[in-house]
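Support case: user asked for a sample of complex input and structure output to validate their parser. Sending the pair below.
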Amino acid sequence: MSFLDVWYLIIGNPVLNVLIALSHLLSGSFGLAIIALTIIVRLISWPLTKRQLNSSKALQDMQPKIQELQKKYGKNQQKLQQEMMKLYKEAGVNPLGCLWPMLVQLPIWIALYQAIMRALATTPENLLDLAQRLYSWEIVNQAIPLSSKFLWLDLGQPDPYLILAIIVGGTMWVQQKMTQAPTVDPRQQSTQRMMTLMMPLMFGFLTLMFPSGLALYWAVSNIIGIITQYFVTGGWGYLKFRSPFQSTPEKGR
Amino acid sequence: MTQYLSYRMKQSKILLLVVIALLPLILVSCVPGGAQVAMGWSGTAVHDGIIYAGTLDGRVVAINSSTRNLEWSYSITPVTTPSSGLSCGQTLAPTAIYCTPVVDRDMVYIGTYSGQLLAFNMLARSQNLTFPQQRYGEWEWDCPIDNAKSNAIVADLLVSEDAIYVSSSNGRVYSLDKEFGDLNWESKVLDEKHRKLWTSPVIQGDILYVGTFDGHVYALSLETGELSDWAFESEAGFASSPVIDVDTIFLGSFDRYLYAVKIGSDVPMWKFPQEKPAGNWFWASPIVNEGTVYAGCLDGKFYAIEAKTEGKLWEFDAGNPIVSSPVLMDNLLIVTDESGIVYVFDLSAELEDEAVPLKTISVGADVRSPFCAQEGLVYIQGDDNQLYVVDIDMGEVSWKVNLTIEE
């Protein structure tokens, strides 16, 4: 059994069939099925998300101490790093923890991308191929073939307008700003600014190139992330409604 | 130590950033299953010793079956396809052909995935004249996209005495004048949900019947294209083109049943299998002969069913999906499976419940296209763009020709 066979057996085909079954349950709407699947994925990954949010909350609570350290060791970067590492270790916080849920979602992205392309079967070959990947569930077979229409979108094609790209980029930026603790280190500031801007811009750009079904997943996932972040950490976190292009007040001190 | 830790931390952060930035690239580059390329699987037609086929490199070819030489070939204008994923711009690709060429007198008709219907004159093509030669009766017709995603012609054309009927991926059926390609009529959009008509219509009397992906069988006036009062509605969509025997329509469905629908009735006459659905879709159109329906299923099973009673006469398990419709040649029933095995059943012999084929011949390539049989020979186009001529008596591939023509 090849890696691909195992992949389809464990992840690819289950995601595809669940997506089609959801579509049948939701009045044949493939778009609603993607939204429902996103919610399910977020529920499954909730323990991981919760850990990340708690870590984020802990970072937020540590801010006075961090700022104190930054004031104290601002001129000695090596010492500052050392002290901050110590502080993180004592608090049991991993500053890179926020990236892991994203990585964990990678197989889901790939499976979803495949599922969207396969389920919508835009070519006769795709439709024939789909037949070999479906379970014998009645609910699945009654849903085929699917309609790719959802709101203004054709879920198998990129959004021809900028709407979804703005939503994906915007929600990703908000989510990132909510979790990223400000820093006084100019080098870290620049990395942080780059990350905060680069990721939303990149995903916004990708939205214009990938099937809008996948972008819909990104958008809904981000929105759910923002909501859970808001309720778990008790507010908007580090998000201050400033332009991302505007430098932080600490800069240049 | 601290410096080292700090260095490692920065390094891992950069690594993570790079990985995350590359994730979408991985999605398109390394993940199979995202491809949306239409390759085509045109069937073959034989007329007066000439074999006609649409090729995987976007040509229509005529091959002399005696000399095995190319009589003529016409290259359909390649299509520009938008690149998927991260690659920018457009790529030029051969036009996919799913239609089987239809030969009618001195003309050959074929539809393309790019939404064109081409009428070739054999004489004009053999002289390699510029297409279309109106004085030879050649014409081309572009199917309108009509607010749909596509105008692709996937289903086989239906040619009557004076008209051609085309199912389009824009959801409409069109009737064209056979001589000049003028539009006689266009139907309303029959499948608003999917906008795909990938199955051929069929004529009975002065009515045209067509099955849709949203589970309807519509009856259209042959003269005007208007819908008649009767339409059959099923919960699941129809996967195969319908066939008619007297007053009953037979067609396969996505719900893994084969339906028999009496024209005028709102409930199916029967659904096969009776007990539980088959292992997959009835994708290929069944054929009906002397009161028996022969139908292949994508689960690899092939069935002979009594048309009136739904009684199963016999079945055969090919083990591989049956994508192409079976073909009758005298008293021989020819069936192929996707792996390229040709099964020959002798219908004059008494076949057991678990039928055993008279002959089993492998062409050595996957087969998804429709095929034809004539005078003891079966003409099959493989997925490798080769034409295989199978001699039933000899029980082997008699000869084959590569349809990819080198410039």
